[in-house]
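Quick one: co-fold with pyridoxal-5'-phosphate.
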Amino acid sequence: MRIAEIYLGNLAHNIAQIKNNLRPGVKICAAVKADAYGHGAVCCAKTAVECGAEFLSVATVGEGIELRKAGITRPILVLSLCDASEMRALVKHELTPLAGDSEYVDLLEAAAKKFFASQKNSSNKNPSDNATRKFSVHLAVDTGMGRIGCLPHEAKDLAKKIAASQILSLGGICTHFASADETSATHRVSTQRQYEKFMLAINSIRAEKITTGIVHCSNSAALLDHPEWQFDMVRPGIILYGYCAGRITSRYLSKKGIQFEPKPVMAFVATVSAVRTLPKGAGISYGSTWKCERESKIAVLSIGYADGLLRRASSGLEVAINGKKYPVRGRICMDQCMAEIGMESDVKRYDRAVIFGPAESGALCTAQDLADAQGTIPYEILTSVSKRVKRIYLS
Ligand SMILES: *Cc1c(COP(=O)(O)O)cnc(C)c1O
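Sure, here it is.
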């Protein structure tokens, strides 16, 4: 068996730690995209809302609909651009898009107009309800991410267009930092430049007497490293799930007098499905890249790359069983892998083998440790945990 244990108490702890670092009145928009970074969107979103998150964010319309169907009524930002075929559902489920160009605003307006009209025709309710109803859009400004949004000098006209619409309303304005999780001088300068461009865009809109709505720009890294940029709302993601963003580590922050000690939320756990004694010379796994140098005891683990234990992690990976670390031997297979446990080991069938997680799960390493060993980031380790891994929620 392979499971992902989700310690919702740690998620609550992390949100409390974030709140401790927010200025008064700043809202939290909890990123629950990609199934809450692999942790399970509905449960994590509900916990985040209970802990005070006013907004949620997802990547796709489908992810937003999943939350609505689970009864979540908070505003939900859709951070990626939608296909034309998704726009009706976007409006119907009252998801909030980010818009960054005039054509996209037109598409949103047309979709909302059509949907509102269909509602009017199909209900006998007071038609004036519908007449005043508007569809909220947040204006995205590209200040240096090169992904979505208008350029800063285009923000004013786009804001005007949205604000003048009979159908749309300007609910907010935002940008996204490309390198807020880096600490080198050049990256800090470019992040500062992004902030300045964002301010220029905001001021150009305000100069037209247009209200911007909710102003937000900070991801996990920026909200901790630049508290002065929190504006009306912050958009934490990775720190909700217990990992620091890039180089904005707890140590780095504590040197700046900022207290932030997140706890990992997910434990990735397999069971020992068999314990075998193999003779000297026996090859382990595909390609026999590892062979027993002497008679060896091998634990077969029910977890593989199809579960999200990436094959490229094979060499050097260690798993924790009963509080001790054991090395994985040979290549990780699709559904299983093998660990060498030593001839004197007391490891037995159905023991827990913990790949990573918080200390209370029995883990001896975190997704950060795995990411460092594999040259990636905890985001990728967490979102790689696949669908067939059952999520079990613990308080
Ligand atoms: C994913 C995402 C976030 C959260 O990023 P973290 O680094 O996980 O805090 C915030 N804003 C946008 C636009 C995003 O795409």
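If it helps, The chain has a mean pLDDT of 96.
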